[in-house]
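Residues pack. One example:


***
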Amino acid sequence: QVQLVESGGGLVQAGGSLRLSCAASGSIFSINPMGWYRQAPGKQRELVAGFTGGGGATYADSVKGRFTISRDNAKNTVYLQLNSLKPEDTAVYYCNVNRFGNIYWGQGTQVTVSS
C-alpha cells in the first residue's frame, strides 16, 4: 500500500502564491508520480499538472505559466507551486501515483482564493 498526504493548501488572496506538497510513504518502491488534479464544487476532477516521459511536464491551459510541478525523489515528495492565483483556482487539490498499475490518491488539500 501507498499512502499520500497532501499539504500546503489554505486561504490566499488573488495574485498570491502557495506551494502544495504530496508526501508518499508505505510501499514506495517503484512508485511513479503522476500529477496533481483539482476538483471544484459541482465540477469534475481535472488534471492540473502531470509528469510526462523524459522528465517533462504537462499543464492544463488554465494554469500554464502560473503553476509548476516538481519532485524530490530523495524525499518521495511531489510539489505544485501555485503563483498568480485566481478565484477560479479554488478547489480541492489531489496528487496521485501509479505503482504497478495501481493508482493511489491522497485525501486532498483545500485551496481557496479570495477576490
Notes: The mean pLDDT is 94. The chain has no helices and eleven strands. The radius of gyration is 14 Å. The CA atoms of residues 10 and 111 lie 5 Å apart.
